[in-house]
Structures are given as C-alpha cells and as structure tokens.
Amino acid sequence: MLFQYKSLNFNRFRVFQLTGSLLLAVFFSLQLSAQQELMLHSLPDVWHSTATNPAFFPEDKHFAIGLPGIGLDAAHSGEVSYKDIFVKSDGRTQIDFTNALAKLDPVNTVFFEQRIETASVGFRLPGKIWLQAGHANRLSGAITYPKTLPSMIWDGNAQYIGQTVDIALQTDISNWNEWSVGLAKGFGNFNIGARAKYLSGITSLLTDANRQKATITTSDDIYQLSLSTDYAFYSSSLISAFDTAGLGFDLTIGELHGKAFSKNTGFAFDLGVQYKVNEQITLDLAVLDLGGKITWKEQSNYFASQGDYQYDGVTLPGADIINGSDSLDFATKLDTLNDIFKFKKTAQEFETTLPLRGYLGGNYAFGSRWIFGLGAYFQKRAEEKATVAVGASARWKPLKWFSLGAMYSVNERSAANLGFHLVFKPGPVQLYFASDNVLNAFTVKSSPAVNFRTGLSLIF
Prior knowledge:
11% of the residues lie in helices and 54% in strands. The chain contains eight helices and 23 strands. Strand 4 and strand 5 (129-146) form a beta hairpin. The protein starts with 16 loop residues before the first helix and ends with a strand.
C-alpha cells in the first residue's frame, strides 16, 4: 500500500526503509483505527453497547443477534493529517513532509484502536439472567517517534551538522481475534455482568523498552558520519527477516490474517454494573480487559541491532531520494551503512498487555422523549499514562423507532468535541451511527483525529 505511487524510489535509501515505512503507516492508520466510544456507551438500548458494559441488555427484549459493526478511534499528538503527507501534483499523489514537519512536536505519539464485531448473540432467561457470546477482531497500538526521524528522511542530515539526532521508534502494536462469553444477573434494580474473552493473536510489533537507542551524528569537520545503535524489537507474523545484503527487510503482514485461531493466546475479563436508582435515573460502571495479556509463540522473533560506525565526507539527502532523483548513486556507501543496522534474529516468545479501559456513566430520563447523560472514559497502556475523556449528552426520541442526539466531550487532546448519533429501530432491526467527534468522522484525510462507530443488529 505504501509503495504504490510510481513517483517513489526507496531502493537507494533503505537505511531508513524500516523506520520510514512504519512512520508512513502511522499516517495511514489515521483512517483505520478505534474506540473511545463515549457516545455508544450512552446508548444502552443499542445491542452493540454491551461491548462497553457486560451488564447492558436491551430492556423488554429476549433475544439479540449482533450483525457486523465497526468502531474506529485514532489520534495524533500534533495537528498532522493525511493531507499534510500525501499531496497531489501533476495528477499523481506524492509524499511531501514539508507541511507535516512544521506541525510536529519534538516527540510525537499516535494512538489507535479498531474493533470489528463480526457476530454476537444474546439470550434473556427466566430469573433475570442473560447470556451473551460473540467474536470481534481488534487492533490496538501506539507509536512514538522523534521529529528528527521524518526530518532526516525528508530533508537529509546536512541540517544536523555538528549534532547527534535520535531516529528510534517506540512501538506497541497488536492485532488479535477475541472470542467472548458473558453472563449477567439482575438483583432488583441492580444488574451485574461479567465476560471472559479468549484472545488469539494475529500480528504484533513491540520495541524492547531497554534497548531504544538509534542515533546519527554528522561531524562539522569533514561531514564524518557516525551511526550508533542499541535497538531491539519483538515481532510476530509481521517482520520475518532482514536482507542485510540487499538493504531491505521481509514483511509478512497478515500471514495469520483470516485464521480464527493461532498459537498466540491469552485471556481477558470484563466486569460491569448497572443500577436503576428510580424511573428517571440510571447509573453504570464497567472495567474492561482486566488481566488482558497475549503470549506470542507463533512466528515470534527478537531482532537486535548494536554497533558503531564512522565514515567520511557524506551527507544523506532525503527528499531527492524519496521522490526518485536518478542522478544519485549511494549504493556502495549504503552497503557500508547497512553494517550498523544489521539485525540479529533470534526465535523468542514475548508477551503484550491489552490496554485497561473503563466507563462510568449516568442517564436521566426527562419524560418519554428526552434523555440526558454524563459519561467518563479512561484507558491505561503499559508504560504510558492514563488517558481520560468526559462528556455530557442529550438524546431526543421523537418516535419509538428513531432517536438522535448530541454530546459535548473533553479529552486530553481537545476541549471541543461535538458528538452525534442516529438510531433507527424499525421492527426488530437496530441500525445506528455514533461519533464522539462528528466533524472528524467525515473529514478523515484532513483531520488529525478520527472517531466513529456504526453497526446493525436484530433484537426480539
């Protein structure tokens, strides 16, 4: 996908091919990622909202079939968008980092979550008991990178004469299948639910927190170039080998894609409660992915690069090489440069931790047509501080089978998020669209953040 544009020529610059490709993948991921879902959580009568609290089950309904649904949530720490990277020129799309570099912070992070629900089912049994089961595919990731990395790729190293710059990425990305079974029980006005999830890993890329050094120094004397690495990462079914002679690497993205199960396994648990204070007020609390871990055994490897090297009189151009200047020939020198980036591959199992997530909410029914709500969401990744969002919502139900609503929410990125939802429920059909930031949902290519959720179900 990243190399489909005819104007690109990376053959002479593969010293940065791995880091550059991963960085570009970050900006593509802004179209493909998910799951703050404050708006969805405020709709407990929608079947797919049970993903945010296992105690939810539509009132006065006995059987539910969840059809496909998708949730996407992604954000970049700066103001960079897809259109800042990929620009149209002379009828073709080209890479241009000029606008993006001006917007980057010294250190930048991209967070992304994606949840695709393929199928689910729920039953209400006598005695205020309900059961649920389902399958979903999830992608969760965070990538942190220094501004100097894309700057070096695009403008070359001449701008950093006399300086040592960092080019190391930190990644924590996993894609897995999630099989779940849940049980909920009502006690008067109080409902409690629990869900167990079996996890089957597809792909993962995790940098070693203890080995994250990759620097380049350009001397101000004779442009002597010094490279130093003590950098390592784990990979499962993603990067299978490095071709040090050819200055490349072998990507095996999606090798386990389409397989329901793998040897990469783990478990996670969800807990939730819902309390109906009276006819108007309902409160709820849920904690998701408790103890969530995946042990990666299948096609799992550890790649490590460690070394120091110097050579004289070279500057590395970036823009000319990326956009295919045929007058440049650095093949011989890059053969030497590649010595510093030789990755030693070792078969090794590793473990990743799912982000811990939680919801706190409350709704107030004003008559039969209006519902007002407050909600809060948090997510905590290993090695990262928790992210928090809070919101206030209003829902209007002019018809029994139709509702629409809005939400104002605040998170660490923005204090001005306007959400929106539509729910259609003709007969047993439930069709909905929800977004915590409706403007971003329809301006994917020009926005640094994306959030929306949509799905279909049958409720009887």
